[in-house]
Design brief:
Elements (H helix, E strand, L loop, with lengths): L9 H7 L3 E5 L4 E5 L12 E5 L5 E5 L3 H5 L8 E6 L4 E5 L3 H5 L3 E2 L3 E6 L4 E5 L3 H5 L3 E2 L3 E6 L4 E5 L3 H5 L3 E2 L24 E4 L5 E2 L3 H4 L4 E4 H6 L3 E2 L6
Parallel strand pairs: 15-17
Antiparallel strand pairs: 1-2, 3-4, 5-6, 5-7, 8-9, 8-10, 11-12, 11-13, 14-16
């Protein structure tokens, strides 16, 4: 088998039938010859054999075993897939039985719901399930300081943490009267405002601009942002 295609070893099959195999250099072809007495008679029943790639061949009954030994079957076969990645060729008449014990007629993908459920989904149906809230890997509910939430792929959680998202509801720290204020009267705490492309963090949302979002001072500093010269001096 090469790339799911069955190649018949002519020499092995022919020799199993007591035939002679020779290479003709002039025509670059294989010549197979056999004593008529060793071959099947015209009256011998024929059998249709099936290859996994869909090819068929009619052969004499006496040749069936030789063809079975090189990957041919007495009835059509279907390539089936297990959830763990295994594959097998299954007789068409047995497909339903194998489906009953966890095999599929096409590759499957393990998908995850936000509530923790999982299911194996046919590869051809993955996009449809993604459209109704399923994911191809586990997800985590994350929270922004401004109250927004989002389900994030588990592999992307650390990246979202770096830009001000949390894995638990965000609770702003309490400030007291001793907190220092800027000249504009903005209370300085651990909540600051940043923009996606900005290089500064701000204590004033209006100073940050219309695309500003709330985050923590530590998160802003960790992402490389420095204090605004106007409101965070």
């Amino acid at each position: 088998m090469v790339n799911d295609t069955t190649f018949v070893p002519i020499r092995a099959v022919s020799q199993a039938l007591d035939a002679n195999v020779a290479w003709d250099d002039k025509t670059s072809t294989i010549k197979i010859s056999s004593d008529y007495s060793a071959a099947s008679s015209d009256n011998e029943p024929t059998v249709t054999m099936y290859a996994p790639d869909g090819r068929t061949i009619d052969i004499a009954q006496s040749e069936v075993e030789a063809y079975e030994n090189v990957g041919w079957y007495k009835e059509p076969v279907v390539l089936m897939y297990a959830a763990d990645g295994r594959t097998r060729y299954t007789l068409q008449s047995e497909v339903e039985a194998y489906q009953g014990v966890g095999w599929y007629t096409e590759p499957v993908v393990l998908m995850y719901a936000a509530d923790g459920r999982t299911r194996y989904t046919l590869q051809s149906e993955v996009e449809a399930y993604q459209g109704v809230g399923w994911y191809t890997e586990p997800v985590v509910l994350m929270y922004a300081a401004d109250g927004r939430t989002r389900y994030t792929l588990k592999s992307e959680v650390d990246a979202y943490k770096k830009v001000g998202w949390y894995t638990e509801p965000y609770t702003p720290p309490k400030t007291n009267s001793s907190s220092s204020g800027s000249s504009s009267g903005v209370v300085r705490g651990s909540t600051v405002y940043v923009t996606p492309s900005g290089k500064k963090y701000h204590y004033s949302a209006s100073c940050a601009g219309k695309n500003a979002r709330a985050t923590t001072l530590s998160a802003a500093q960790a992402s490389g942002k420095g204090p605004c010269a106007k409101c965070a001096r």
